[in-house]
Amino acid sequence: MSHPLLRMAIYGLIASVIGVVAALWIDWFPPAAVQEAKDIDTLWDVLLIVSVPIFVLVMVVVIYCVRAFKARPGDMGDGEPIHGNTMLEVVWVAVPFVIVSVLAVYGWIVLDDIEAKKPDRLQVEVRGQQFIWRYEYPNPTGGKEKVKSYDLVVPTGRQVEFNINTDDVIHDFWIPAFRLKIDAVPGITTHWRATPSEKGSYDVLCAELCGLGHSTMRGSVRVVAPEEYDAWLSKTAAKAAEEG
Ligand SMILES: [Cu+2]
Predict the structure, then answer these.
(1) How close is the Cα of 201 to the center of ligand 1, in Å?
(2) Most CB atoms within 10 A, among 71, 170, 194, 196?
(3) Whether residue 127 sits in one domain with residue 239
(4) Does residue 81 form part of some domain?
(5) What is the distance in A from the centroid of ligand 1 to the CA of 166?
(6) What CATH number is attached to the domain comprising 185?
(7) Is residue 76 in a domain?
């Protein structure tokens, strides 16, 4: 029990267990509103489970070294010369390499999975401008003219593809309840896809500092039943036609 390595291992284990439990207990995200959220939240939990013990390991070694090797009062001598430890260096390069590689592959698989395009997906154009979001929907009558609105309304059970543009500076289209965000960059169109599953109203935010009004660049998305979406779209299209 008195061997420093054993003590460090025991303290580290206890701190890791407490840290992982605390990290998993925290509600990091708002309630989820899309099917993809489950995989994303699981990925997040796995990252926490892997990274908390690594943080604890580093802190335990640092705290131990600070306590065990601090200079005694009046000790003006240099530390012992060290020539390195090849085995240790191989281990501390190889282990992180394996951990990061495995997590990268896992993250890539999840991203590939949730981004898979569904053939019947709904295309919604998103345009950012200082300091508001605008949206364009496919015309319900099949016409070329898009239906424009400042409201974001999407149906449940159907993949939505957001095609994101900006009229001025860089913004970032973020719906925390959908777990996804991407920059709106002048001159290019960026995308993300999600399948709304829970009816309700959720925040839409700009996640890129875009000017003085950045903090006011927020709105909401309404997730509704497919029939309600169709009715809303027809009404909005009719109103737009009326106004010319
Ligand atoms: Cu913005």
Answers:
(1) 20
(2) 196
(3) yes
(4) no
(5) 9
(6) 2.60.40.420
(7) no
In which domain, by residue range, is 134 found? 122-243
Per-residue pLDDT of the chain (244 residues; tens, 9 = 90+): 578 889 889 999 999 999 999 999 998 999 999 999 999 999 999 999 999 999 999 999 999 989 888 888 888 888 788 888 899 999 999 999 999 999 999 999 999 999 999 999 999 999 999 999 999 999 888 878 899 999 999 999 999 999 999 999 999 999 999 999 999 999 999 999 999 999 999 999 999 999 999 999 999 999 999 999 999 999 999 888 787 6
CA of residue 170 to ligand 1 center, whole Å: 7
Give distance in angstroms: CA of 167 to centre of ligand 1. Answer: 11
Q: What is the full DSSP assignment across the chain?
A: --SHHHHHHHHHHHHHHHHHHHHHHS--SPPP-BTTHHHHHHHHHHHHHHHHHHHHHHHHHHHHHHHHSPPPTT--PPPPP----HHHHHHHHHHHHHHHHHHHHHHHHHHHHHHPPPTTPEEEEEEEETTEEEEEE--TTS-SSPEEESSEEEETTS-EEEEEEESSS-EEEEEGGGTEEEEE-TTS-EEEEE-B-S-EEEEEEE-S--STTGGG-EEEEEEE-HHHHHHHHHHHHHHHHHH-
Same domain assignment for residues 15 and 62: yes
Compute, in angstroms, the gap from residue 52 CA to the centroid of ligand 1. 33
Whether 166 is in a domain gets the answer: yes
**How many A from CA of 195 to the centre of ligand 1?**
24
Centre of ligand 1 to C-alpha 185, Å, is 11
Q: Is residue 82 part of a domain?
A: no
Do 12 and 109 fall into the same domain? yes
